[in-house]
Write a structure and sequence with these properties.
This protein is α/β, with parallel strands linked by helices and about 350 residues long. Helix content is about 45%, strand content about 15%. Bound molecules: glycine.
């Protein structure tokens, strides 16, 4: 199975998509490394801990449990994990293995980014969403009371090990939410991936291994290409925010309790597709296939009850808003994007209304 290179000024590394990749982790820990700290949750450890332990191939490691959940993705948890590392002999030669879903990848990556001013991290994502998005590309973060991911650092991993086998234990809701990010990858950059998702939706939903591996590999390849072209999101990387700009408002307005991130992205993509049509970038006829593809992976939680005006107001607080200007990622056709600012608020409101109602 494939390995995709990410090239950044700081380093070049691989995102490996391979069944059984967990069994190779020990081989990726540098020979000269000091203590290895595996940051994980009890739930992930219960399901996959023995596989990781075997994969370490006799290399000793310290386990650091993080309680999990968006509400615990806070700086205080990073501090507590760092204190535990020091207490257990962590130093500048230590390595973090972030082993879990997107929250663990973000928080474990942030811990590594700032522990003793930065130590290496190996990312091992265990949810589909984290495999195709969060764990690849070096964004690390914690939440503030004022908003999600508002503190963090770019810290590229030594390697990202993506093992489709771990998805077998993933609950259906999380699996489908992860597929939203795969659909996003298809819409923004690959008609081939989009058609695979559209035509083979039954096989994808039934988690047929070859089809799932193909979806993951395509999405990871796209993410690696985009990050290699623009590590710090000053240009091309913005296209990865397709569906996220309005999607974030659904998450924030419902206090991060009602939607999984991928579910909010699915709704945000529906809004972005409506907006693309309403602003004249996307012919309505072309939008139908996109909307149908998203529908095939539903039903998505409905956004009814959320006030469109309040959602609109939240857009200007999003961290993607630069100097008060909201940049929308629109799509003119499957596999392509257009980053647009200065859209009339009334048009944006209408696109949100069409999504919420
Ligand atoms: N999740 C969007 C990015 O990594 O840039």
């Amino acid at each position: 199975m494939p390995a995709f290179a990410v090239h950044t000024p700081a380093q070049t590394y691989e995102a490996k998509v391979e069944r059984g990749a967990l069994a190779q982790v020990g081989g990726h820990v540098p020979a000269k490394a000091g203590k290895v700290f595996v940051v994980t949750t009890e739930d992930v450890w219960r399901h996959h801990g023995s596989t990781l332990t075997t994969g370490m191939g006799g290399r000793s490691f310290e386990l650091l449990f993080f309680p999990g959940g968006e509400s615990r993705k806070r700086f205080s948890e990073v501090e507590s994990l760092a204190e535990q590392m020091v207490a257990r002999g962590g130093d500048r030669a230590s390595v973090v293995v972030a082993f879990g879903g997107g929250i663990v990848n973000d928080l474990g990556g942030f811990l590594a980014a700032i522990f003793m001013r930065g130590i290496p991290v190996i990312q091992i994502p265990t949810t589909l969403l984290a495999q195709v998005d969060a764990a690849v590309g070096g964004k690390t973060a914690a939440n503030l009371v004022s908003g999600k991911n508002l503190i963090g650092a770019f810290h590229q991993p030594l390697v990202c090990l993506i093992d489709p086998d771990v998805l077998a234990t993933l609950p259906e809701r999380e699996y489908l939410a992860g597929l939203a990010e795969v659909i996003k990858a298809g819409i923004i950059r690959s008609e081939g991936l989009f058609r695979l998702l559209y035509d083979q939706h039954e096989a994808v939903r039934a988690r047929q291994p070859e089809v799932v591996e193909q979806c993951i590999a395509d999405a990871v390849r796209i993410k690696c290409e985009v990050v290699s072209a623009d590590e710090k999101e000053s240009g091309l990387r913005r296209i990865l925010n397709f569906g996220h700009t309005i999607g974030h408002t659904f998450e924030a307005e419902s206090g991060y309790t009602r939607f999984l991130h991928g579910e909010a992205v699915a709704l945000g993509m529906i809004a972005a597709i409506h907006l693309s049509v309403m602003t004249g970038y996307l012919p309505e006829k072309e939008s139908l296939d996109m909307l149908e593809c998203i529908r095939r992976y539903g039903p998505w939680p409905i956004a009814a009850g959320l006030e469109p005006e309040r959602l609109l107001a939240r857009l200007s607080h999003d961290k993607k808003t630069i100097k008060g200007t909201v940049h929308f990622v629109l799509t003119p056709k499957i596999g392509a994007t257009e980053v647009v600012s200065g859209i009339d608020e009334r048009v944006v409101l209408e696109a949100i209304r069409k999504t919420v109602e």
